[in-house]
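4.2 Preliminary Data

To establish feasibility before requesting continued support, the project team ran the inverse folding procedure on a target of 193 residues. The structure was first converted into the token representation described in Section 3, and no sequence information of any kind was made available to the design step. The complete token record follows.
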């Protein structure tokens, strides 16, 4: 009988350890998945890297389109300053988005991003971006938000991507959970541009 209690206790400890590990993995999965996507370009998530620096700038060009969206819980207007840019592969370029807080108080937002076609993501690297940190806008504030990026010239030699001639960089802004800032604007203009 004492042997059964010992086995039951060992089984219970193992069961609680497995359950605890599963809960821990649940909390860690989203940040780990995002890190994996940023490193590999998986799922259309652009790579986050240093400036092109020593990379050779190609004479080949690619058109980058800019897309902007706002979740309905965020009382902002958000749009690209430029709709598209023709960039030389390997050249670090700077683009801007404009955000306006339409509410009567401060509001904090955070942006998610991706590129399409997804297969181009490993060749699209962001050097610096407003999306790396939360953005707080005061009531009525309008700001221009920069993103610095480059397209790796290797995109033209990869058999899977060499036909790609345009990439769309898309952002969606969401209200930061727990943000108690400004109220929703009564007459809101759609945020996507």
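Position-by-position output of the design step:
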């Amino acid at each position: 009988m004492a042997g059964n209690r010992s086995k039951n206790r060992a089984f219970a400890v193992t069961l609680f350890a497995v359950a605890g590990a599963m809960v821990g993995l649940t909390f860690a999965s989203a940040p780990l998945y995002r890190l994996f996507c940023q490193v590999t370009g998986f799922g259309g998530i652009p790579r986050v890297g240093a400036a092109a620096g020593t990379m050779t700038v190609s004479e080949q060009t690619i058109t980058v389109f800019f897309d902007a969206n706002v979740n309905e819980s965020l009382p902002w207007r958000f749009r690209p300053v430029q709709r598209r840019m023709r960039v030389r592969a390997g050249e670090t370029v700077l683009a801007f988005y404009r955000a306006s807080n339409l509410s009567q108080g401060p509001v904090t937002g955070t942006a998610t991003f991706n590129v399409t076609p997804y297969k181009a993501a490993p060749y699209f690297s962001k050097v610096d971006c407003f999306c790396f940190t939360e953005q707080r806008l005061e009531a009525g504030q309008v700001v221009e938000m920069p993103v610095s990026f480059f397209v790796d010239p290797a995109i033209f030699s990869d058999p899977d991507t060499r036909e790609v001639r345009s990439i769309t960089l898309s952002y969606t802004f969401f209200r930061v959970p727990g943000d108690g800032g400004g109220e929703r604007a009564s007459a809101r203009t759609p945020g996507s541009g």
